Structures are given as structure tokens and as C-alpha cells.
Amino acid sequence: MKLVSVLSLGIFLILASSHYARAQRITVDFATTLRTHGKKDFNRRKFVNAHGNFGVPTYARGFMRYMVNDLGVSFSRSSNEGPFSGSNNFPRRLSLASLRRDGQKKINAKDPKYNPLLTKNINPHRIATDRADVIKEFHKSKAKTKAAISFAPRYFELFFNKGKALPRPMFYECWNEPLVRWREFRLSGRESEVSVIRRLAKICGRLCKSVKARNPGMVIGGPATAFTRPFYEDFNQFKRRVQLFIDQAKSAGCLDFVSQHLYDTGGGVLDGNLDLMETYTARRNKKRQPMKYVVSEMGSYSKTWFSKRKNVSSPPRSGRDFLIIAENFKNFMSLLRVHDNVQKIVSFLTLDPTDPRSTKKYRYPWSLIEKVGAEKIRWTPLLRYFQLLKGISGRFAFSHSSHADIKVHAVVNRQSGFIMMQNLHLRKTYRTSLRFPYGLGRAASRVIIRQLWLNAGKPGRADRRQDIPRAGKIIWSNKGRKSVPKNILLRPEAMYVMQVIFKKKMSERRSIGRFRRYVARVSTDKGKRLNFPYRIEKGRAIRATFAKLPFRSGVARIRISQSRRESLKNKPDLWLNGKKFSNFDASISGGKRDYHKNYFGTYEISVPLKFLASQNNPVVRVKFPDSGGHISTFLLEVDTCGRGSCCLLNSLTGKDRC
């Protein structure tokens, strides 16, 4: 069945209502594989990681075994494995003989914190980095900087051995969060932020080139940004930090991936940031391919939760724990949309009872365990994040949500199908209806549903002291049932994972290919080229032109990311290939964040692919009735179909059952 034979241009646009009484549609087909730029696998080694390493004292090994063996979690990033903190050789013992001798000592040493059961799970797919403080050891001297750049590749070459000790890490992240501390790395009190970041980026680029020359297979990147909010200062902070770092590192040597830390960004902010990162790096690449992306920390953060100066935590609160879990899940759900380009996702959740931050009166806010005696520990509620993701493995299957606030992904293997959902809004509750256009029938032998939400109450004084927006009790449910529910209630920020266990083995019957296309040119109606970010002016049209689309059957989603004040109109007048469209929703996922006067996020307009591809160079044209704010990106996300999968795209209107 062809898409255009069923859908006219007008009825195809999918309306998303936020009214509680109207159920939002969740559409899933386990037999249809979703290939995003050819990638289809849900890779736990990439996507399900905690922060730290596998080393724990004897009394905590049972907890580590549960994380690794039962929940399938890897511990994949440590600031103690980088070249300047993983050894004591720099800057004094740098002779090749010293490095070989000290490297062999480390390889032969038996760390009592590791045991054979856990050691076998330590793989190269982890991130080594250094604290930013190590920069102070060499950055003011050209000779010391040169020595550091020569030392790093020898460290990775000589201090790791896959057969006898820890295997060499695949990822090297130059430093941890250096850009936010740029003032500490000035050569003089007058040196500007731009000058400092340019120098650091060039050192990182030279480290990249040097390390890769002696360690084939390693990938090097940065800058591990502390706060990923690109719309601050009308995107100028992004331009003078992230953009500058990427450009200077690549010009000085190389940069294989961009790494960022995602705190309180899930939903609209991260959606817009991902489109911006991909669009910018693709335009800087001759092959028009975006740089690979690494999330080396993510979650939620407030300076009121932990004093770095005193090394003391604030008292634990249920609202704080829920916020950390919910923000991790929000980021996770946004990142899976571009899983083909994401190389690593590390949640900032730790398991180390010997960490000094975990030994005080109150537990470290991001710790998975807490001490209840000299050598007794217990789980904290943060464990629920990884319990939600337990067992998920296989290939991505087709799924779709009718509302921006509700994100959904489906994964399937031969024995089970998994549906992951989250309501990203802080206040709204949604009723959803679950639809299987090709039917599910009696394919399910058993269903397991895991849910997590907050039974919210008014924040008290203790909550307000820690900037916790929602207080209450965390509700966890892990229940089995015989059949798939038709309707699901998603409370504010609620997380929901359904596992459908099949009676017979599930096989792939259909396929949908998903691709992203980046804007070729942005201009005014008169042809004047506009530079990022694209300032919104009353009555001025902004035209985004794309290269020719080689696809015909399927759906095209025009993604527009913008930052404006809520008092201004969020929905522009819009034309696609000269035809005006008004029947679309400009809501962003999760709504506005409270830490800035502007909102930032992405909305989509869906149209038949045949219509958009009918013009050699598709054009998106927008015009606002008022001035203020910026558009950061225009991007096309294309779903191509065939052999029965076009029917799935037709069914999103609810008018056609496959």
C-alpha cells in the first residue's frame, strides 16, 4: 500500500492535544525494525552505564555483582585512568625505561578491590579522563606542554594489558569540565576566555593526534562541558566555548568526538542541543556527517545538594532522588532518537562506599548505595533507574507518540518486546492509548510492567532549601499480568517500561529506514545569507533550503529549534515548498525550563515525503508576527518505508488499520 494513496496532504498532519480527557496515541509494531542511518541495535554497552569503575571493597562485591550480572550495567568512566592521574610519572619520570618499568609494575599489581568475576566484565569500551587540575602542571610552559603531549600516548601504550590487567580504554577525554574553569588556566589576569579556550583546545587536538599515532583504535575527544545549555546569551556562550573548542582542536590535530555533560536538560533543551551539535559539525565536515557524540555524565544537579569546599552533602530527600532519576531517563529518551551517532551514555550514578564523599553523615546525592555501619551498606532509591532498564536488548522497533511531552521507544528480540515511555512534563498528566496497527493478538504469553512516579506534595522548607521543585514519595511498581493494557496513565515525569514476553519467537517482517538531513543554506527572501543563530524579526521571512532528497515513499518531519520568551508567539506562519501550513503544534517536549527567561526546544511538522521531495531543493519558510529570540536549527528527519511498513506511517492518523 502506498502512502500517498491513503493520505492527502491535509489529513496527514498529526495533531497533539494536551487535554487530559483525550487519550494520546502510542503506536508500536514489534515486527517492524527501525534502522536509523542503518543502525538498528540497542547496545547496552553504549547506553546503560554508571560512573566510576568496577573496583569495590569486599563487603560491597555483592552489590556490584547485582549491578553487573542482574541489571547488565557497566561502570565506564573514571577520572583516575587518564595519563596524568593514572600514574605518577609526569612530569619527572618520563624516560622510556622508567615508563616501561612503571607500566609493568601497574600491570603486574593485583588490586584487592577487583575480583575475577568483575574483572572479566571490564572491557575497553570505557572512558579515561583526568581532572581539569592537571592542566596546571604544564599549560604555562611550551616545553612541559610538549612533554605532556609526548607522555600521554606512551601511558596508554605501556600501562594497560588486556591479558594480564585492565585493557586499554577505547575513549580518552582530554579533561573533565575544563571550560567552566577557564579563569584558572589564564596565563595572566588579562587573558580572555576565548584565548584560554583556544589554547586548551589546541592542546587537546595535539594530544588526540599524538595518542592515536601510537594507539590505533583509540578515539579522543572533549570538552566535557559542565552545563549544556547552548541558548544562553543568545547562543554566544555556545559559540565561544563548544564551537571554538571543536574548531581549534581539529585545526591543531584531531578531535574524534564531542563530549558533554547533561544536567537538567532532558526534553526540549536536549532535543534542540542535539540538532544544533549535529547541524554545526556536519556543516564543518566535507562528507556532511556529524561528529560522534559522547555523554560522559548526565542527571540532575544543584549546588545546594553538595558542598565541594566542605565535601559535605545535604540531607537526602525523596524529591531530590526522583529528580535525579527522572532527568537521567529524560536524557536517555532524547538520546535514543539519535542512537546511531551516540557512542556512549554514562549516568552520573556511583557505587563506591570508600569514596570520601560517601562516608559523611549524609550520603553523596548521586550514590547508588549508602552506609549504615562500618561495613554495612544498602541501596538508595537511585537504583530504580537501572532497574527500569533491566533486560532491554535487541533491535529498535517502530514506535511513535502523538504528543511532544510523551517520548516512546521500542526494542525487540526474539523472546520479548520492550516499550519505554516517559511523560516529560513537570505538571501535566496524560492518558495514553496503546495501538498495534498490525495487531498483537495472542502473541503475548506474559506482560511485565515497571513504573516509577512521584506521589507529589507541596515542597516543605527542607525541599526549598535544596531547590527541589516537587516533594513527595517515590512510587515503584514491578508487576506481571496476562495481557497488554489498552490505556496507560502517565503522571508528571513518570517513567514506564513494559516487557511483552512472546509465546512464539518474534522475527522481523518489515523495515523502516530513518535518516537526518541538515540544512544547506539559510537566507532571507531576497537571498541574503543568514548566520547562526537566526534572529527572529517581525515580518521577516527566514528560508531554509535543503539538498535534494533521494527518497519518495515515507514521511518527512521538519524539525525547528528555537529560543524565545513565552510571552511571544511560539508558532510562526510556515510554508513548505511554497504551500502554507497552519495545522501543526509548536509545543516543545516537557515545556519551558525554569532556569532561564527563554524556553528552548524543538517542534516538528510532519508531511508526506513525496510532497517535500517533489521540489529539487526543498524549502522551509517561516515568518513571525513579533520580534525577539532566535531559531538555532532547521533539520529534516525522514522515515522511508516499503513492503507493508508504509501502512504503519499511514496508521498514525488513526484512520487506517494494517
From TrEMBL:
<feature type="signal peptide">
    <location>
        <begin position="1"/>
        <end position="23"/>
    </location>
</feature>
<dbReference type="InterPro" id="IPR017853">
    <property type="entry name" value="GH"/>
</dbReference>
<keyword id="KW-0732">Signal</keyword>
<dbReference type="Pfam" id="PF18040">
    <property type="entry name" value="BPA_C"/>
</dbReference>
<dbReference type="InterPro" id="IPR041224">
    <property type="entry name" value="BPA_C"/>
</dbReference>
<feature type="domain" description="Beta-porphyranase A C-terminal">
    <location>
        <begin position="554"/>
        <end position="638"/>
    </location>
</feature>
<protein>
    <recommendedName>
        <fullName>Beta-porphyranase A C-terminal domain-containing protein</fullName>
    </recommendedName>
</protein>
